[in-house]
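Teaching assistant's notes for section 4

Start the section by putting this record on the projector. Ask students to predict, before seeing the second block, whether RING finger protein will look compact or extended. Collect guesses on the board.
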Amino acid sequence: MITSSSEDETKINKKSRKMDLGNRLIQRSSNKIREKNFGKDTSESEEENVVVSFKSKKTAEREGPSDMGATATLEIETEKDKDAQAIFERTLKINKETRGQADDKVYRGLNNYSQFYEKRDTAKGNAASGSVRKGPIRAPENIRSTVRWDYQPDLCKDFKETGFCGFGDSCKFLHDRTDYKFGWQLEMEHQKTTKGFEENDSDENYEIPSDDEHLPFKCLFCRQSFVDPVVTRCKHYFCEKCALSHFAKSKRCYVCSENTNGMFTPAREIIARLEQSNKAEDDSDNSGDID
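Reveal the predicted structure now:
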């Protein structure tokens, strides 16, 4: 808004922004910035609210090289145009241009004197390569350095990974291929096994379970005593006749409906228990007959 008070003077009245604080009894997340900037100059608030935006390339490709650095070159050595091989290549070029010409009395550097013995390309490489000429060899560019943290410096890494060591019995490192668990792995397993043990401190936590508690007394199919008991892959016990008759109808377990693949192994635990019970009955019968 521009108002003129006189012919020579002009004033500009900028309409100030009205701060609406709202009700103090109502908490709003949008009023935090207003309360923070309340009482400050507009210049300070504008400096704090600076937003930096970046222009999008509007492509779905990732940033960086497309091969994820697989063909990255090593750039810590001397530049290609300044190393010994580049200097020798320039020397060969200058000697080739000035060969057979009169001396023009022009100094072209320490490495560009006339050479009467010319290096030629051989089977080892071209004339400028390090295998033919004298001097330092250009370092390869396709070397990628990797770092490996060795937590077991006393073990032979070749023998542990491949089972073979070129040093044989004379190797000073230990030939061991066993896998040892770290401390944090042992602690995690201990926490999983003792989860809830400390909270529920009852007598059941100190009881030693018996091996026969999980074994059933009757066949799960015919509900009768076992006759030639067998066990499936899912640890369910049946009579051999019951298991085969059910397998003829369905290949899945009668209890958990898991595929048995026709694998029924003899239940040695139940067979041993049946033999013990039969032996105990025979002993009791013999003792009764003696009496």
